[in-house]
Amino acid sequence: MLDLIESNPTRAGIPCDADAILAALALPSSLLYQPLPFGLPGAREAVARELAAYGPPVDASRVILTASTSEAYAFLFKLLCDPDDEVLVPSPSYPLFEHLARLESVRVVPYRLAYDGAWHVDLPSVRARVSQRTRAIVTVNPNNPTGSYLKRHELAAIADLGLPIVSDEVFGAYAMRADGSRAVSALEAGDRAPLVFALGGLSKLAGLPQMKVAWIAMDGQPGPMTDALARLEVIADAFLSVGTPVQHALPALLASRGVAERAIRGRVMSNLAAIASVVEGSAVSLLDVEGGWYAVLRLPGTREEEAWALAFLEEDGVHVHPGHFFDFEDGAYAVVSLLTAEATTLEGVRRIVRRVARDA
């Protein structure tokens, strides 16, 4: 079985600076519990420095630590919404939005990402879906799984809606553009939107999902920000979910991430080039991707998407995600991880291309 959906860096053979990581977790200060709602100052300052290296400066007082980006979403849905309120989310995109929203009694309303050789936000569909119950708009930048960037004019148009923006930027470090440019952070819209929340974490940035620390960085208009910070403090204080050892370790973990980050970037770029080479001239096409660590393959419409996925699995021993897992709206798609070992990716995509050539 060739597993083309492996996206856990700790199982995908991604190296890390193990000595530095383990040393950071052995600090004597970890034995003292300091229940600070937003997290320890040193950890928050380290996140603020990291964010400022690639985007607008963020004061550490506007950084909130959480155990995961999923928990960050939960905090923000609690903050912004009452039961039966609505949040706009991109489609296709991250498949857990509906589950996370339902747990907070919030409804998700999808807006469309369109593809015409490159991905873009269908801005008319965004505007059409705003209602009296809309409380925020979510962006994923780079998107999971399309790998598309939110463009500056799209960010400006979204900010002009007057809604809080929740921007998932966990894949921001992994650029695939020829010029290496990263996606613009939604924090750049802090002077236009009432509130902007940018989400990140160690899971993707450092390839350390087991450390369970993520963050929310906030910007926006002074009045709404002051109010939101006060209410977020109440929410965060009710959970105090981030472990003390990983908070003390966070500056060192961020500083040591280079080994894993370089390995991930190399793996992703190698796999993307291999896939492009294998599918060239075939009935399988590779959709444009700008960042992240997933790729989307478009398959012929001669079979239903689920039938293709099952054929790859049962007849060729290749495991892929069908596109409907991510709410692709039409056609037949397969989503594969670019974190899989290169040899596995190469052979798996070759089998997909052969199967399509036989059955299309």
Task: Provide structural commentary.
Helix 3 crosses helix 8 and helix 11 crosses helix 12. 46% of the residues are buried. The chain has an 8-stranded mixed β-sheet, with helices on both faces. Strands 10-11-14-13 form a 4-stranded antiparallel β-sheet. Strands 1-12 form a two-stranded parallel ribbon. The protein is α/β, with parallel strands linked by helices. The chain has 2 domains: 111 residues, Aspartate Aminotransferase, domain 1; 238 residues, Type I PLP-dependent aspartate aminotransferase-like (Major domain) (Aspartate Aminotransferase, domain 2, 3-Layer(aba) Sandwich), CATH 3.40.640.
Compile the SSE list and pairings.
Layout: E1 2-3, H1 18-24, H2 41-52, E2 63-66, H3 69-80, E3 86-91, H4 97-103, E4 107-115, E5 119-121, H5 123-128, E6 134-140, H6 152-159, E7 165-168, E8 195-201, H7 202-205, E9 214-220, H8 222-239, H9 244-255, H10 258-279, E10 285-286, E11 294-299, H11 305-316, E12 318-319, E13 321-322, E14 332-337, H12 342-359
Parallel strand pairs: 1-12, 3-4, 3-6, 6-7, 7-8
Antiparallel strand pairs: 2-9, 4-5, 8-9, 10-11, 11-14, 13-14
Helix pairs in contact: 2-9, 3-8, 10-12, 11-12
